[in-house]
Amino acid sequence: MPIDLTEFSDATNIALEESSYCVVAICGPDGPDVGYKGSTQVFDRDHLSYWERTRGQHLANLRSDSRVAVMYFNRERGKYLRMYGRAELHEEGPVRDEIMARSQRELT
Amino acid sequence: MPIDLTEFSDATNIALEESSYCVVAICGPDGPDVGYKGSTQVFDRDHLSYWERTRGQHLANLRSDSRVAVMYFNRERGKYLRMYGRAELHEEGPVRDEIMARSQRELT
Fold it and tell me: Which of A28, B44, B73, B87 has a 20 to 30 A CA-CA distance from A93?
């Protein structure tokens, strides 16, 4: 049964304020790579989203292997989540615009 | 030229106390996996170490693909490090014993 991700929205969607940044790990051609993605949010009940700010190696790697692992930890909330899935790249269109809008809201 | 890791010892070796746990990412047969490894330390100038407490999926994955990415972040220290290498498994012998001893010291 799919998990309803919105139960985690409270935690992940204020991760920036709480300094509990989500971590995204991917497999590139040269091995694993990992980074904090401060804009990670629960996009809807079935999807997480993040805004790829740097457009660097992580993006290049996702083009060759879309599998991702996402980790969230916050000791005060007693939450340690690891989620596994596949990334969809939205480089134009309404989903991209919505992710950008939400990320800017988070960052201001 | 190899980097002398000991310049990071101050930060990583008290990461537990500062709640700046290192993150280890690996590539398993089913894709990337990632976890906080609170026992990560600078072992010597050329090596990081961590104590594999759970002996679970991460260990199984490292047996099939030894490539690892390690990340450290601490905002107050202004340090965001990502290091890439290959894991060596020490399941017995003096290196294992030394890593265990250091990890226990950190955790008590």
Answer: A28
